[in-house]
Write a structure and sequence with these properties.
The protein has ten helices and 18 strands. By secondary structure, the protein is α/β, with parallel strands linked by helices. The protein starts with 5 loop residues before the first strand and ends with a strand.
Amino acid sequence: MSEALIQIGVVGCADIARKVSRAINLAPNATICAVASRSHDKASAFAAANGYPLTAKVYGNYEALLEDPDVDAVYMPLPTSLHLRWAVLAAQNKKHLLLEKPVALNVAEFDQIAEACESNGVQFMDNTMWVHNPRTASISNFLNDQNRFGNLKSVRACFTFAADSEYLKKNIRVKPDLDAHGSLGDAGWYCIRAILIASNYELPKTVIASHKPVLNKDGVILDCGASLYWEDGRVATFHCSFLANLTMDITAIGTKGTLHVHDFIIPYEEKEASFYVGTESSFDDLVTCWARQPSKCTVKTDLPQEALLVKEFARLVGEIKYRNSKPEKKWAVISRKTQLVLDAVKASIHRGFETVEIQE
């Protein structure tokens, strides 16, 4: 007898929930069973517009969905300032939690969310989609290959996009009472995660923010960067912005090899993603061209990365529901490390670009 699909409820009708709703519909082991908004009409219209099953329940408040015994897990795309309240309540109602990033306003809040999940035996995962693309596993394999890449020396990551005037005035990411982190939380989160993957999730020792970040009139970050340092001499830098042309780059340099990725967050093609690697690169004899050029590696997938994320989340939930397994803790650990670096960058900005030491 095959196991039933994991029943996922969507808590909030943010724009990103359109993409994740499609992903849940595509995942072979999950289905949407409910949606909630602060307005029943809004939730109903959202369900109709996004191909929800006719059996999906529609709620005009979040509490009703979280109390529904038929809901196994929830996807929560609420503003960051609301995560603590609603994520903890979801865990207390024994709902496995797929939480939108950034996960919290600070690591202290995240620790409360993680503790609620752990004490109630529910799976936690954040919605960093690109990590679940099979290309990311291939990238990690190259970075961990001593023969091809060697030891990591430096990483540079960049995620920028040119937001329009409407976005810069009204989007929740530029409102201090809603998301508060601005481009650092929205775009910088991805850069920090890329750096952590390249460093095999070893946290840097210190962080210092770049001078002259751009803030809006409410003090929310629109453009910023930072440098991260490890005790063994490794260094990483990143830049994130709502004010520059669309760019999604990673460059990682090792003692033997180099990695370049130009679309690391959202691949150019939905079901095909590439990256470039070079090992012991060199020039020709006259130094007029490269004798050993980087090579292109392409990874294909049957499902888009967001559906792969949902598939893995639902698999873990299924292991707990049907096999009495324990929640996989690594995802909470990875989210916490990302939050710690984000907090350190923000602290450095607020302290006049002082060096901030990261304490686990």
